[in-house]
Specification:
By secondary structure, the chain is mainly α. The chain contains three helices and no strands. The chain is elongated. The mean pLDDT is about 80. Keywords: Coiled coil.
Length: about 140
């Protein structure tokens, strides 16, 4: 195939022409004009790309602001629901009776731990007249 055999020679010829062009072109009277035109054209392309990116950023900024406004509305709605739920629970729950969390676990001799805080907690509850919420119970009954 003639084209495949001629390919290396063609590449070599292109390289030689390129080297000569780089040496001779700067001395040409038209070189400065062509170089400036090329430089301005590349600057205009870069400016166009920058403007496109700027427009995309503005659009993204608007979308983010809209999303933030929607999230703020959602947060306000959730806060209102939580307040309404808290008020409903507070109106229905009596603090006078004890709350029991879970069932009493099976007591196994080797795993049972006597709680030293129990006596101190009872004394605090009985001696101090202020209302308190105290979660007491055996380990594993779901206080936390």
């Amino acid at each position: 195939d003639i084209e495949q055999e001629a390919e290396p020679y063609f590449r070599e010829l292109v390289d030689v022409v390129k080297e000569q062009y780089v040496k001779v072109a700067p001395r040409s009277s038209e070189f400065d004009k062509a170089a400036l035109k090329d430089l301005f054209a590349s600057n205009e392309q870069a400016l166009t790309k920058i403007n496109q990116v700027y427009e995309l950023l503005e659009d993204t900024n608007k979308e983010v602001k809209n999303s933030n406004a929607k999230l703020d509305d959602f947060k306000e709605d959730m806060d209102a629901l939580l307040k309404r739920g808290d008020a409903e629970v507070a109106s229905k729950v009596s603090v006078q009776k004890p709350l029991i969390f879970g069932r009493r676990p099976y007591v196994v001799e080797s795993y049972y731990i006597e709680r030293e805080e129990q006596v101190r907690l009872r004394n605090l509850i009985n001696e101090d007249p202020r209302l308190r919420v105290v979660l007491v119970g055996m380990r594993g009954c779901g206080k936390s």
